[in-house]
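Fold this complex.
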Amino acid sequence: MKDLATANFDKMTAAEFEEYLPELFAMGGGKISENPRFGTFFKANPTCAELVSDLETIAEQAKSLFEPIGDGNGLEPSEEVWSKIASKLKDPPPEGDGG
Amino acid sequence: MQTKPNPGFFKRNPPIAGEAEAIEKAKNGDAEAFSKLYALHKRRVYTLCLRMLGNVSEAEDMTQEAFLHLFRKLGSFRGESAFSTWLHRLTVNLVLMHLRKKGLNLVSLEETINPSEENAPKRDFGSRDTQLAGSVDRVTLERAVASLPPGYRMVFVLHDVEGFEHNEIATMLECSTGNSKSQLHKARLKLRELLRQPEKLQPVAGLQEAAR
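Structure:
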């Protein structure tokens, strides 16, 4: 991974910037697109600004997938799953089930 | 000694009304309390299995396995993290174990480290392309995620959907944190490509399309 502390983003090419992106996104601490440290770079490289904005949108929207959609929309296991679980709860645990 | 829960753990998984009581009763073998835990968490667990496996039948089997495992292991839950976080980690580990038993190269890491030309995200910094409209609807995103190569999909679901940290994912997938970060970035790049042409995305088996 690249060293973010010493990187000079103002003079970077788009390809060089891409190498820093995984680490930049992993850092957290707010949106990259709104970080003034990258303002000059994004002004000179609008395609990178669009890319970062899109990736931020994707990451943000992904959180909405965590909550299943409402009842009756087919996101539940079939009734049969609980029937099988309920019947097996009475069984002794399988051998070697140590964790 | 019981560890004091970290409030940060509960940001995405706030305690559910009645859950704590059901957990305590289920620990003592109360079947009705356990059925309540199943009712509270079955959809999330099933959806997680479905996203990881991409197959309704296998997802149901793993949901069953996850809750049976939960029943046997519930006594070891100490409340250091949100119950749903703990349950999801248990589920992920079972699914990964299932995939290993099937002889699959766990998250196809080789595939994503050296992806085929077809599956690798394209590098297109030099050209102006259509930017995403600023938001992506849920169904389209779900379809795009399902279209990802397995290795990308696994890391994306674990990090961006489930909220696991890179160090946790690295432990689960037996890879480095750098690898996890890199795979996640490639997954998002690939999703961007897929989302630019939503008309080409296929409906997802088992995931309802009525959620637009």
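Residues 1-91 of chain A form one domain.
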